[in-house]
Design goal:
The chain has 15 helices and eleven strands. With about 500 residues, the protein is α/β, with parallel strands linked by helices. The protein has three domains: about 5-35 and about 40-80, Up-down Bundle (dopa decarboxylase, N-terminal domain), CATH 1.20.1340; about 135-375, 3-Layer(aba) Sandwich (Aspartate Aminotransferase, domain 2), CATH 3.40.640; about 400-505, Aspartate Aminotransferase, domain 1. Strands 1-7-6-5-4-2-3 form a seven-stranded mixed sheet, with helices on both faces. Strands 8-9-11-10 form a four-stranded antiparallel sheet. Helix 6 (about 160-185) crosses helix 11 and helix 8 packs parallel to helix 9. It is globular and about 70 Å long.
Length: about 500
């Protein structure tokens, strides 16, 4: 391959960006007519791919014909094998917004190709991220203790909320070890993690990776706390579990307060949880240093609208907070904003400085090196897409997006409540509706599967007990509204298809 072929011929980026831009415009314009869920069978996609990689690339020959073939394969192999997350009738899981400004940020980031592990390796990569996360801190109404300008706090972009939880837990484990050594009881011990029974599975997985839990069945070192009628953590149950562990010689290490659980978007009472930690484990500064992490992965985005900031009550007492703009704030995956009240315990736990990373700016202490705020060393210029999104939509545009989709979820909830054959299983907090057909689990599973098989809508489910303390969890259908192109007509079509499918006899 020649030097010219291995580099970037003049105009190549412009031409290819225009070509793939036209393709993406066409895809997005036509996605609403496609089946929401992929209709392929297992192995069908891989069966269309060659058994081995090409020995010679098309850049050595007719590049135009080669790229045309790539476009055909996108149409004939890739698109049929996709479940379309940007479809206006995608209501499963949680949304994964992908806006044009964010796409452009990704394109520029990829084109720049920088590695932002240190301030020195690309100062703009670090400093734009710092400032944009301070913007978001203000936009959500988070307290100033999480702002980089206070000298101790600050934010960083992780890949996902799962990474943020793991990062926080590693810092929590290290802080407890240092405390144990300081008070003369040795560094090692049995540590315990606490979260509600509705918390995301990433809490358990993080405990396994961090060496706190022995495996997914370890109920000794990962305590799943009972929930109340709104599916939120019970303060008194947390207190009882912590007292039991202290009496048994185990050390409470980490508590996760969920602001918007995956199953129902339930909101744990962070203020009461913080108070419980203080009462049981000692006041901050002289007791067991239990780390309080707030996981607001999905619902946190709603706080750009002031009327939803009640969910953050007590967050000023948390050690860390995270939310995912890549779910509901028009920013492409992956983008988790992770905030710290005091960055020092995390840096103490994560910092490793081999000689080849030493440099004068880092040694001066005047700059942030985000490689010390995360598990991997390397990092992409993720802040560009967030910067583009905030500048393109403004705070008011992002608020409007949240309010509009919450309103559509409220519309769907009203349609369900008006029909006595169905029931709402959990309180609607923001844009998620949990409902079921009155009847058996089998009937509800069949209803959802038949709805998804139509290709016109896509839904997901959870298992919920009613009341929450009951042992008989029931199959519950979830409708999460958050795609920017979803309209009232899409909500009414969803409900019409629910009614039509529920009345049809299952084959």
């Amino acid at each position: 391959m020649s030097e010219r072929q291995s580099g970037n011929p003049a105009g190549e980026i412009e031409a290819l960006a225009a070509m793939f831009g036209r393709w993406l415009d066409g895809y997005r314009a036509g996605v609403s007519a496609m089946p929401v869920r992929s209709q392929v069978r297992p192995g069908e996609v891989v069966g269309k791919l060659p058994q081995a990689a090409p020995e010679t690339g098309f850049r050595d020959g007719d590049a135009a014909a080669g790229w045309a073939e790539v476009l055909r394969d996108l149409d004939e192999i890739v698109v049929p094998g996709l479940t379309h997350w940007q479809h206006p009738r995608f209501f499963g899981y949680f949304p994964a917004n992908a806006s044009v400004p964010a796409m452009m940020g990704e394109l520029v980031s990829a084109g720049l190709g920088v590695q932002g592990m240190l301030w020195l390796t690309s100062p703009a990569c670090t400093e734009i991220e710092t400032r944009v996360l301070d913007w978001l801190r203000e936009m959500l109404g988070l307290p100033e203790c999480f702002d980089s300008r206070n000298g101790l706090g600050g934010g960083v972009i992780q890949g996902t909320a799962s990474e943020a939880t793991l990062t926080a837990m590693v810092a929590a484990r290290d802080r407890v070890r240092r405390w144990r050594k300081k008070v003369g009881i040795g560094e090692r011990g049995e540590y315990v993690v606490y979260a509600s029974g509705q918390a995301h599975s990433s809490v358990l997985k993080a405990a396994m990776i961090a060496g706190i839990a022995d495996g997914p069945q370890d109920a000794v070192h990962v305590r799943m706390i009972d929930v109340d009628g709104a599916f939120a953590m019970r303060r008194e149950s947390l207190a009882a579990a912590m007292r039991e562990d202290l009496a048994a010689g185990r050390v409470p290490c980490f508590v996760c307060s969920s602001v918007g659980t995956t199953g129902t978007t339930a909101v744990d009472p962070t203020d009461k949880i913080a108070a419980t930690i203080g009462e049981v484990c000692g006041a901050e500064g002289d007791g067991v240093p239990v780390w309080l992490h707030v996981d607001a992965a999905h619902a946190g985005s709603a706080c750009v609208a002031p009327e939803f900031r009640w969910m953050l009550r007590g967050v000023e007492r948390a050690d860390s907070f995270c939310f995912n703009p890549h779910k509901w704030l028009l920013t492409n995956f992956d983008c988790d904003c992770f905030y710290l009240r005091d960055r020092r315990p995390l840096i103490d736990a994560m910092s490793v400085t081999p000689e080849y990373l030493r440099n004068t700016p880092s040694d001066s202490g005047e700059v942030i090196d985000y490689r010390d705020w995360q598990v991997p060393l390397g990092r992409r210029f993720r802040a560009l897409k967030l910067w583009f999104v905030i500048r393109a939509y403004g705070v008011s545009g992002l608020r409007e997006h949240v309010r509009r989709t919450v309103g559509l979820a409220a519309l769907f909830e009203s349609l369900v409540r008006a029909d006595g054959r169905f029931e709402i299983v959990a309180p609607r907090v923001v844009n998620l509706v949990c409902f079921r057909l009155k009847g058996s689990d089998g009937a509800n599973q069949s209803l959802m599967e038949r709805l998804n098989a139509t290709g016109r809508v896509f839904l997901s489910h959870t298992m919920l007990a009613s009341p929450p303390a009951a042992s008989d969890a029931r199959y519950t259908i979830r409708v999460a509204v958050g795609t920017p192109t979803t309209s009232e007509a899409d909500i009414r079509e969803l409900w019409a298809r629910v009614l039509e499918t529920a009345l049809e006899p299952a084959l």
